[in-house]
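Example record

The entry below shows one chain as it appears in the dataset: sequence first, then structure tokens.
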Amino acid sequence: MSNLNSCTLKTLAHKNTYEKYRSLVKRGTLSKEELLILDGYEYYFSYYPTDEEVDFTKYYSYFSQNLYTQLTQSEYITVQTLCSNAAAAEPKAIQVVLNHLNDEWMKSKLTELTLAKFDSTQLDSLLEIYNKNKKVADEADPDVELFTDPDLFEGADRKEGLHWRLSLLNDAIGCPQIGDFIIFAGGVGSGKTALCVSEVCNMAQQLAPGEKILWLNNEGKGNRVRRRILSCVLNRPTSVIIQNQEKALKKYTSLMGGDPNRIVFIKASNMRLRKLVYYLKKYKPKLMVLDQADNLHNDSVKGNDVLKIHDLYATIREIANEYCPIIAVSQAKNTTFLDKESGQMKWKRYLHLNDLDFSNIAKQATAEAIVLVGRDDAENIRYLHVAKEKTEDRRGFKTKAEVKFQPEYSLYTDFP
């Protein structure tokens, strides 16, 4: 305690509190008048033994008549003012002082018990270590990032981690890193979920034992996507797999390093983002897929769809920074155009950022990379455009590619 103010005077005016905490007061920091009042409590409780708390009107009268009659007039006025202020002290302020006194009392008791138990030399040594560690902890600000930090170049070349199946994505994006938020977008029937299946199946086979990929599905029944994953890994259509399911699952398990559940499927219909974080903490995945991200809910924002999508994607990016890279499947618009020569609607082969739903807001701003899936009338060809990539040192790589698509296997591969 650095000063005995009116709240402290009021707190110590209770008999039990005075007896328990009076020794904690640092007398050298008190004025003459404050010391006189404090010491006068003992005489007061002796003179009024039935009082459990000082009555400051009675106390001042007793004080002026029986204690320290040699005080000057100004000192008496100071004492009277201190007593009046103490009597009017607010209960909330008194509670703050009482909590502080109790903390100090606990510290003193713990010190007494420790000194009785241990050798003082050992305690001095432990205290020195504690103070050194505390100084280091106090100087280390978790929000400050230094050029001397050992993680400065961590993941900068993007060659370490899970590799994509398609060379376009390896070249234009590199291995996904924590903090990456990557969007796969396309029109209805373009094969955007199939692209996710193809790449996730390839990455899942690169995982170390015990590692997982999370797939949050809100696009229809989850068993459909799981069947597509089986087809992709085994390179067999579902119609063949169901003829010998046991054999297919055994081979699939072998290709997944003995763990058939390396890809963990979560039903995400009407899921809130806080539940998503629960699964991330539980499984600690190396990658997460949101199919589709637009269907998730963020309770923090009310309003129109534009505001909700803006906040949703910004929050997903924050989650990627904290836990793992995230691939989000999203919708594209304007995937067809009117051909003036034929007068017929045709597919756009290469989509652009302005073809992305809500393309003027957070989807572009928050994503590390946006991969757009275009097509034409050929079922076995897709046209990929990495329309945005913020990754370092990827400039100069091609951002568009014509790739082979096998829809019966949900498999994308490079053309030879």
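Notes for this example: The two ends are 80 Å apart (CA to CA). The chain has 15 helices and eleven strands.
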